[in-house]
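Question:
Write out your own:
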Amino acid sequence: MLKLKYQEKLLEAGTDEAGRGCLSGPVVAAAVILPDDFSHPFLNDSKQLTEKQRQGLRPFIEKHAIAWAVAFVDQRKIDKINILQSSILAMHRSIKKLNIAPEFIIVDGNKFKPFKYIPHKTIIKGDAKFMSIAAASVLAKTYRDEFMEKIGEEFPAYNWKQNKGYPTKQHRAAIREYGITKHHRKSFRLLPEQLKLDL
C-alpha cells in the first residue's frame, strides 16, 4: 500500500526519472504534487504496471494533481555530463517547471543534489512506497515511451516502438548491422564487445 506523503506539514513533490539504462534517446523526469485526498486503485511503480494501465493513469494524474511537470535531457547532454548528472538535471528541470513551488521534495533512488533551498529526502524504491513518486514515474515513463515511438518512425530497424531504446538483443543486433543513429548515447557501452580491446 503506497503512502501519500513522507511528511505531513509541507507541500510535497515527488520526482522520478525514466530511461536511465537506455542506449538511445533522452532521460525524462517528472515531478508531481498530489492533493491529500488523492487515490487510484492502480497507482504503483510504473514498472509494475502494464502499458495500458500507465496510459489510463496519466490523464487521471494530470487532472487531479495540484501540479505536475515533465522534463527531458537529450542524449547529447547525457554524453557530456553522464547519465547520473543528467537524471538529476531532468528532475531539477521538472521541479522548476511546476506552477507551484514545493516545500519538500521526495526523490526516487539514493542520489540527488539539493534544488534551491528546498529540503529533500532520497528514498530507495520510492516509486513503490509513495504515491507522488509513483505518479511521477508514470508520467516520466509514458512521455518518454511516446517520444521513443515517435523518433522510432524514422529509424524502424531499431524497433524503439517495442524496446523504447533499452538494450534488447534486437536493439543491439540492429546497432551491429546498421551502426548508431543521432539518438544513440555515444558514451554508453552500446555493444558487449566494446569491452574487448584489440591489443
User: Anything to note?
Assistant: The chain is about 35% helix and 15% strand. The mean pLDDT is 94. The longest strand covers residues 12-18. Strands lie at 12-18, 27-33, 67-73, 104-108, 120-123.
